[in-house]
Specification:
- The protein has 16 helices and no strands.
- It is mainly alpha-helical.
- It has a single domain, classed as Up-down Bundle (Amino acid/polyamine transporter I).
- 42% of the residues are buried.
- This is Amino acid transporter transmembrane domain-containing protein.
- InterPro entries: AA_transpt_TM.
- Its main location: membrane.
Length: 476
């Protein structure tokens, strides 16, 4: 879901810096000349008197926007391939763990829903690119929301983004708990204070979270870029481990997959839509491209690649393990195999690499909301303390509701479907209301309604399942 950060270093910092300064000075000179020509020959303007010329403050705004565009363009350095790799890295995550479980429970016909949602999300990614083209000053998902619906649009978009980050981190922590429990199966960990209250798996999860805690105090993206690479590497290891299990016939792929379980579709739809989450950071990716006009092609290539990955992994896992497949494919693999141990440890390490990356957008929001009079050291302490408190809250919630598939499904149905489908369609319809064609309007309204319907029934279904599991746990 959120997302990878890519840092590129210039081979010649001094020459690049000088070149950037020259471009910036040149652009400022050109725009200054435009401004001077528009205001040339008007003494009233110069003397700040009532002016009757045909220009207005809107001219200043348009010039400022043009200058901002030039600055953005000079800072954009991502090629097509680099942008596609970044987007794929953003999309691959917990979805690959749950796709076999979702397919087995939904039936092989639900693969059409998986592929269809991939196509829809690629299209809504394209819509975000169109919104950015119509609003060059927008730099983030929340900016697009503000351009479409004002301050209420920004507020709603920000709330859903923060909620997605929070719930995604809860899911990662549950995954950490489940896989640590498998890695250290049979191990007994005793601490005198917590012996009667916490299990070994819970204590190991707490230790894992505490190991990751210092990473939330990092602010410089270059300091956490290695975490981004680590997350991608872990995903490759997990997929390769499952593939090797099938290729070398360690487990016979002889289970039949049911055709369709219609009553389970609402719940698994949340798992599917969560797998394609990434739209909240796509505007940043768009702004980083050398040629933003290729953003749609990047989206098509990335979503096609990820959809093929998820679909192939889903069928492989379902054929290998059948009805007994776990909500995380790594938990179903034969535990005595070395490739299983590698996959389990990769799944354990993945959440630890994700905490700082997922928290970065929130930390930036916190920093910007602080008074400018505070010193950088004070801001760092406040930001780090807020992150630590948030992570400990996430830890407590994950240990209280350790139901990975249901929490992930709820996240997809309640939050991801809005960010991936509903909001992009609504933003595009509003921003392009004057130019949008009737077929395009019908298409986007249909997708918006489909997203709302999918979100409502999925949220109700997954919420009921969580409540049922909690009641069973308390009654046991």
């Amino acid at each position: 879901m959120w997302k990878q950060t890519s840092i590129r270093k210039s081979p010649s910092p001094e020459s690049d810096s000088l070149h950037h300064q020259n471009i910036q000075v040149a652009s400022e000179t050109v725009h200054g000349e435009k401004l001077a020509k528009r205001w040339e020959g008007c003494d009233d303007c110069v003397e700040n008197k009532g002016c009757k010329c045909d220009h207005s403050t809107q001219d200043l705004k348009s010039i400022a926007d043009e200058e901002e565009d030039v600055k953005d363009h000079t800072g954009a350095n991502s090629s097509f391939a680099h942008s596609a790799i970044n987007m794929i890295g953003m999309l691959i995550g917990l979805g690959q763990l749950s796709s076999p479980y979702a397919l087995e429970n939904g039936g092989w016909a639900s693969a059409f829903l998986l592929v269809g949602l991939g196509v829809i999300c690629a299209y809504t990614s394209h819509l975000l690119g169109k919104c950015l083209e119509k609003s060059p000053s927008s730099r983030s998902f929340a900016d697009i929301g503000q351009h479409a619906f004002g301050s209420r649009g920004r507020f709603l978009a920000s709330i859903f983004i923060d909620l997605e980050i929070f719930m995604t981190l809860v899911s990662y922590t549950i995954s950490l708990h489940d896989n640590l429990m498998t890695v250290f199966a049979g191990t007994q960990l005793r601490l005198p204070i917590w012996t009667a209250e916490l299990s070994t798996a819970q204590l190991l999860t707490i230790i894992g979270v505490l190991i990751a805690l210092p990473s939330l105090w990092l602010r410089d993206l270059s300091s956490i870029s290695f975490l981004s690479f680590g997350g991608i590497l872990m995903s490759i290891i997990i997929f390769s481990s499952v593939a090797c299990t099938a290729i070398f016939q360690v487990v016979k792929a002889n289970h039949s997959i049911p055709v369709l379980h219609l009553r389970k579709i609402p719940a698994i739809s949340g798992l599917y839509i969560f797998s394609y989450g990434g739209h909240a950071v796509f505007p940043n990716l768009h702004k980083s491209m050398k040629d933003p006009s290729k953003f749609t092609k990047v989206s098509i290539v990335s979503y096609a690649s990820v959809t093929v990955l998820y679909t192939s992994l889903a069928f492989t896992g379902a054929k290998l393990f059948g009805p007994g497949v776990s909500s995380q494919i790594t938990l179903s693999m034969p535990r005595h195999l070395i490739i299983t141990k590698i996959a389990l440890w990769a799944t354990v390490i993945t959440p630890i690499t994700k905490y700082a990356l997922e928290y970065t957008p929130l930390s930036i929001q916190i920093e910007h909301s602080l008074p400018g009079s505070l010193s950088s050291r004070t801001k760092k302490i406040i930001r780090g303390a807020a992150g630590s408190f948030l992570l400990l809250t996430i830890l407590a919630l994950a240990l209280s509701v350790p139901y990975f598939e249901h929490v992930l499904s709820l996240t997809g149905s309640l939050v991801s479907v809005c960010i991936c489908i509903v909001f992009p369609c609504a933003f595009y319809i509003k921003i392009s209301s004057a130019q949008i064609s009737k077929p395009a309007l019908i298409l986007n309204v249909t997708l918006l309604a489909f997203g709302l319907l999918l979100g409502v029934i999925g949220t109700i279904s997954s919420s009921k399942l969580i409540i049922t599991r909690l009641k069973r746990a308390h009654s046991a």
